[in-house]
Amino acid sequence: MAYLVVSDVHLGSKSGQYDKFCGFLEWLNEIKNERIIKCKHLGKGEEVKITIKKPEKIILLGDILELWDPKDGDRDNVIKESIKPFALLSDIGSEKVYVVGNHDEALGELREEVDEVALPNNTKFVIRNRHYPDDHNGLKIGNSSYFFVHGQQFDKEQAILAWISRLIGESWDPLGWFQSLFNITSTKKHWKKNLAVFFALFLGGALYWKNILPSPIPDLTWTMFGSGSTFIIAIIAAAIVLYFGLMRFNYLSAALFVIFSSSLLFSGQSSLTAILWGALTGFFALCSVPGVVANTQRKFYNMLKPKDKTAEQIINNGYYKKEKDTIKAGVVVFGHTHFAGSYGPNNETGNKLFINSGCWYGKDIPEDKRYTNTFVYIDEGGAYILRWRGADEIDCIEAFPAQ
Ligand SMILES: [Mn+2]
User: Fold this and answer.
1) Residues with CB under 5 A from ligand 1 (ion)
2) Distance 249 CA to ligand 1 centre (A)
3) If I label 262, which of 50, 58, 130, 211 is the partner at 20 to 30 A Cα–Cα?
4) Side-chain half-sphere CA neighbours of 373 within 13 A
5) Ligand 1 geometric centre to CA of 359 (Å)
6) Tens of pLDDT along 22-81?
7) What's the pLDDT tens digit per position in 179-234?
8) C-alpha span between 149 and 361 (Å, rounded)
9) CA of 336 to the centre of ligand 1 (A)
10) Does the pTM of the predicted model rise above 0.85?
């Protein structure tokens, strides 16, 4: 019984290690039974021999795809960078278990029949929404029990997302939502131009009504707030387009229809102009604001991200809450923080061993012992955190021999 775990490849992102990951999968494809590898133990400096058996299961432990922050904000880049890795993966004669992370959570909402795919080589590809296995007692390998979870669950910065999601009864993902809006072909192409039109319409409209409409409250410099029903109807029209357009894109045309037909009821030349103006302004806002968000959110998000935290920091800085932990397994394997390493077992971890599978993203920082292109290998003999540099060129970051 051998398992292999990788996480946080972020395919389609700006700093992913696509080529390395493909090379790794090609190497995995070549392991027919087992492979004895000599590797340097990066902590101890000595050489160790590890027998890598062909894994029964490959666990893709979340954030394999970058659906939140793809290169240039364009999700087509995720599709491009997925073709080869998934083709290579399906060739490998192991079961593939994809546990979704926060950057690829949308996969968990696929139609049920896509959650379990039978591949031509008689292996399965399954998608798990939260963790693997379902049973909190974990999965027995040798003398230890293992539990696999992406790790955003330990993330206090994402607690607000989880809280709102529980409240509304479905996953609340504002970044994914703006990504979706931005990834409309014409928005992707023209959002900057649309933004200029939006500003021109907005300011032009404000100036126009300021000059032609008598203000009931002359002292107000910004007449738009006091210019009566016309402007208010226009604002409501703009809001309706924005609201329905943003919530459910297929309602957009219905909303436009309501606005234009109601403009006939209200008639009067100036209100028709106002309503047209409102609808157009709303439309251009819808086709440009997601571009602004998609292109600036990375900076905000990076400020909040617990990226590059060690397993010890996750446990001790209040990300992990022992009293809330329902996991019964002895070893918790997680990703998410991009820092391959371990912590525990001790009192703070509830006597569990936490192993982080690291990432295939960004750069190595050897002085901090932060390595990329890492994976976890588990069999009856124990668990290893390994780093892949090339075919059979593997370093051992940490080893956890079975007791
Ligand atoms: Mn993550």
Assistant:
1) 63, 101-102, 336
2) 28
3) 211
4) 20
5) 10
6) 999 999 999 999 999 999 888 888 898 999 999 999 999 999 999 888 898 888 999 999
7) 888 888 888 889 999 999 988 888 887 777 666 554 443 434 344 444 556 666 66
8) 19
9) 4
10) no
Question: Which residue reads 């292996």 in tokens?
Answer: 123
**pLDDT tens, residue by residue, 367-382:** 888 999 999 999 999 9
Q: CA-to-CA distance for 125 and 235, rounded, in angstroms? A: 50
Residue tagged 């929404």 (tokens): 129
Tell me where in the chain the CATH 3.60.21.10 domain(s) lie. Answer: 3-155+306-401
CATH superfamily ID and name for 3-155+306-401: Metallo-dependent phosphatases (3.60.21.10)
Q: Which two tokens stand for residue 1?
A: 């019984």
What is the tens place of the pLDDT at every residue in 303-336?
Answer: 655 567 888 888 888 778 877 888 899 999 999 9
What is the residue-averaged pLDDT of the chain? 83
Q: The tokens 């019964």 sit on which residue? A: 328
What would the pLDDT profile of 233-282 be if each residue is shown by its tens digit?
666 766 776 666 555 554 555 556 556 555 545 444 466 677 778 888 88
CA of 89 to the centre of ligand 1 (A): 21
